[in-house]
Design a protein that fits this description.
2 copies of one chain form a homodimer. The first copy, chain A, has 138 residues and is an alpha+beta fold. Chain A is 34% helix and 22% strand. The first copy, chain A, is globular and about 40 Å long.
């Protein structure tokens, strides 16, 4: 049975569930930062996905990227499946700006997570969920 | 017309061309490190790919990952499309080991590129090319 890794559960709030992935917002106001977790047991690397799931996950990465672009107009989107620390397959989708804390480097390990105020986070989750659903039905 | 970014051209050697991506080996013996560059003009982010190209690029990421696994038996595969410095869309596929120079962090910016000896690089390119072709025909 699929169970979300405790570190991911601790560092995130759920935005929504798409066909394959659970979509999470990282509790870090430093960057608009989504994580997609395919709800499949025992996967570590992207190439562990079977072909239909792989195609769907790529479509969901696309949706998450477009939702971040619609809400934040970032300079770049960073997409990464690393998982050296938390080995459960998860894909980062991050909106990057030329004046953000880690620019132009990758964000991992640069600044400790700074959680949103509760109301800000709730509002962002709602807006992201609405945006993801809008893209999903196109 | 598609033209490879000069930084990518400088830091890599070509392994092969797949349906959408040019497949490059980074001149860095610190990690087995492939870069896929979709041969499409003007793309910056993964979600700039149209749907058929996106599906094919994901299949080619899969091939590159499996080729690295077959040759190196890494502990993890890292896949990332960042492009904050070199903005032409390119996807890193890296074989990671628990005793490599950057473990468990991401590899970017940790150690300067250390090129292979010419014969080692040529041999690795041949082996990767053979492995990619083997996977492609399955």
């Amino acid at each position: 049975m699929f169970e979300l890794h405790p570190t991911l559960a601790n560092d995130t709030v759920e935005i929504t569930q798409l066909n394959v992935c659970r979509v999470l917002l990282i509790r870090d106001k430093t960057y608009p930062w989504i994580v997609l977790v395919p709800e499949r047991e025992g996967l570590r690397d992207l190439d562990d996905l079977n072909e239909p799931d792989r195609i769907q996950v790529m479509a969901e990465i696309d949706q998450a990227s477009k939702a971040l672009k619609a809400l934040f107009t970032p300079y770049k989107i960073n997409v990464a499946a690393l998982g050296n620390v938390v080995e459960q397959l998860h894909i980062h989708v991050i909106a990057r700006f030329q004046n953000d804390a880690a620019w132009p480097g990758p964000i991992w390990g640069v600044a400790p997570l700074k959680d949103y105020a509760d109301t800000d986070r709730d509002q962002l989750v709602s807006r992201l969920k609405a945006e993801l659903n809008k893209i999903a039905v196109l």
